[in-house]
Design goal:
261 residues; 21% strand; alpha/beta; two-stranded antiparallel sheet; Rossmann fold; seven-stranded mixed beta sheet; 9 helices
Amino acid sequence: MSRPSSDGPESGVDPSASASFGYRDVPAAEKAGMVREVFASVAPRYDLMNDLMSAGVHRLWKNTMVDRVNPRPGERLLDVAGGTGDIAFRLLKKQGERPDVTVCDINPAMLEVGRDRAVDRGLLQGLTWTTGDAETLPFPDRSFDAYTIAFGLRNVTDIDKALADAWRVLKPGGRFYCLEFSKVTSAPIARAYDAYSERALPFFGKLVAKDADSYRYLHESIRRFPPQRELAARMRKVGFANVAWRDMSLGVVALHSGWRI
């Protein structure tokens, strides 16, 4: 089985390469900036929108992921693309003693929201906030015991590079967890869900966040994300072992996991 090099993925982007941005293909070198603009726009209302769009069910999905992580006191935890702190706060509570959670997000606006939320909750110990790209994380090899990413992997330019860099920063025995929208397992439910999200996301985006276009992109990015089996194969390809996934809400989301051995 191939393994990513200790130097991590290449930081350069092929100027001729393309990447998906919703239903459009755009130059790969431009996608990260476009995604930053989306999340800078929606950051102040991001968590409220999650509650509205999922009727609060996203909280149960996130709780399930953190329960699976089951962090032990003193472990070093990394939450990627988690700028508003939703996963990090849960990890802190679950870890209890000697918490050590690093939040890494490419978007400073999302991190600002997360820091403010942490202060409001009195969470001042055991949290580190870092600006960084999931494809080229600003951390040394073998730094963390567990890596989480919730609803962020579909927004990276190159999913395989992000997976490879997740493998790189994990210690041997480290655990990887990805919570992401996926392929609904029931065809009738899939049609209903797709129709709902296609209309509801831009509607609520315009009504609450004053930005229908950003939420239209988020709907489209869900539709173009790899289904469960394909994502699992790509995890194995970069070196993860014991790869598995668990469907939730009939596959509306899936929780993928793997180990670095």
